[in-house]
Design a protein that fits this description.
The protein has 175 residues and is α/β, with parallel strands linked by helices. The protein is built from 9 helices and 5 strands; from the N terminus they run αβββααβαβααααα.
């Protein structure tokens, strides 16, 4: 995990935006169980961090995700932020939530990630694993592909939304 986080730090030196998503299970216990953290940089570096495999040694991951000089890109990130706060000891900031930003440029407030990617980027995402059991091991290739897709397009979505926000004079609204 230390090596992966170091690679991300190097990539973030050129573009300080980090796409983040999580997969967790909250139905079987009082506290949600974080199973996977997905990360992506603008240049295509992607990591799918299996929390069970790395255990509770999350210092390097926390340093990366909690870096105040890196803009974190999320989609409908309320639950992600909550569980990351629980596991990492603090909430990631600054944040850009694409679902919230999209509402300021005319999209419906509850716009799903797949619909947004389709509308802005003309890319159709497979959502077959939307209700996957993330506690199951080994994690299947289809689940990993689904998880990666949740972060690989966030930079392009951010660029499109930021452009529309600025054109409408609403950039500060989202900030």
């Amino acid at each position: 995990l230390d090596r992966i986080c170091a690679e991300f730090r190097t990539a973030l030196a050129a573009d300080a935006r980090l796409a983040i998503d999580t997969e967790f299970v909250g139905e079987r216990s009082y506290e949600p169980s974080l199973e996977l953290v997905q990360l992506a940089t603008v240049d295509g570096l992607v990591a799918l961090v299996d929390i069970r495999a790395v255990g509770h040694e999350l210092d390097a991951l926390a340093d990366l995700i909690l870096d105040p000089n890196v803009l974190k890109l999320v989609h409908a990130g309320g639950q992600d932020v909550g569980i990351l706060r629980s596991y990492l000891g603090n909430a990631p900031a600054p944040l850009f939530d694409t679902q919230i930003a999209a509402s300021y440029v005319g999209f419906p407030l509850q716009l799903g990630y797949g619909q947004m990617v389709r509308s802005l980027l003309r890319i159709e995402l497979a959502k077959d694993e939307s209700f996957a059991d993330w506690t199951r091991r080994p994690i299947t290739t289809a689940m990993l592909d689904y998880a990666a897709n949740d972060v690989v397009h966030l930079h392009d979505v951010h660029d499109k939304l930021r452009g529309r926000l600025e054109k409408l004079g609403r950039g500060s609204w989202v900030d």
